[in-house]
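Progress narrative, work stream C.
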Amino acid sequence: MARDSREAIGVRSNLNGVVHPRPSLSICLRCRDGRETINQEVRGGARLSAAVLRIGIADAALDIRGVHCLSQCKRPCTIALSGPDRFTYLFGDLDPTRDAPEIVTLAALYLRTPHGFMARDERPKPLRAGVLGRVPPLGWSGAAVETIPLSPLTTKETP
């Protein structure tokens, strides 16, 4: 990735160009929750972000960032938790007026658990059914990943 491209999306790197990201809570700022008219046209995602920031996350080992779109428009409001060597989670159907405390609790749980793995029953109730995706870390060899062996039917023959 070109240096100017990394700067455009806010990736920080050291002088050798190696990226050292911290775990992040990403909040979609563009999500619409249908209540913009009664909220001075401020989108639901922006209101959710503001609510999470008002509560604050005590652990400084987590970055909170606004994202211009998480491409989950049919399931607003949306957040993601991700980090190096950690599971990535994507959640939707969140309510900006109600779910900010649970998001803060979830973020703290994410930081405490090995590899960021959070079992369904450990997550706060509003974040049990709204999971849109859970992606294991690259290089993961735990029970969540299975190697798919290539067979003659899945590979192209070379002349």
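Work stream C, second folded protein:
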Amino acid sequence: MGSKQNIIVMNGKHYDALTGREVGVSSKKTQSNVRAVDGIVSPKVRQPFHIRKVHKHVEKAKTLMRGGVKKPETHKAAVHKQQSHPEVMHATHNPSREYRAGHIKKSGLVSKFGTVSSSTSFAKKFASIDVQPEPEEAPPLPVNLAHHPVLAKTARRSGVNSALDNAESHRQPRAKNKNKLRHRVARKLHLRPKTINVLSTALAVLLIAGFFGYQNKSNIAMRVAMTRSGVHGKLPGYRPSGFALSGPIEYKSGQITLNFRSNTDSRRFKITQESSGLTNEALQSSLAEDGKDPLVLQKGGKTIYIYDGSDASWVVSGVKYEVDGNSSLNSSQLLNIADSL
């Protein structure tokens, strides 16, 4: 059984599809197995299936040989060629375009289109300007700043600037930061700064309270004595020079005693305040019965009885007051004490 030969046509030549060798086509039977590679099939030829399958493989693109290709001509080269060869310019000459270009209206003011005509020429003109003389300096007029708020504001601003220039406060020594000192104390005492703030505030309050308490110690003690004794007692507003309240205020039921002592020597006296129903006449009679001849004096609506040189006694609003002791006080001092109670 003979083998069937398949022919492929490529570039006008016939090749065996199996061996790839060039063969010649001599008979119609052989030509019936021929198929063009480019896909064009003759109407009289029927391609086999395996030939159609072969033509599905795409051939890779081939790079052109740059050495055989002429370099394209640039615009500059074309212009140079036209200038160097006038016959080229003559070959492309268009008479109708030249005629149309020559009859287009052009402005004579544009130097591009030729020389400017004399009818449209412009003449340069120069004009001199007189220089005014420098004005004479006029004397300044007196200005009332009260009626010129702008000038007043300028004056104030200049005053502020002058004060800032002469300021010396920035040269003073820098004040110490108390917060740093507080933090150092807190670290040494192993306490928090907030605790130090609370303690310092409480200490300040206690000091202030203690100061006022010391100043009013006598008044507080007198209030306590009045409550305990039931006597409406008083502290004398006048104190003889060199004498001060000595010791605590003594009190018992119906009686309060204040002791005073000299700051320089051993002199002393006491003021006794006790509840009593005596009148001035009864008090005078009582003193006379005790063998005392009192000196009767008036001071501030009060009747004061002075006896034994430096002792005194009087009655006011149901309270009997008595001053006695080795004080060597004179009549004027005794009257001042009685008037202040």
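Confidence is low (pLDDT under 50) at residues 39-45. No further action is required on this item.
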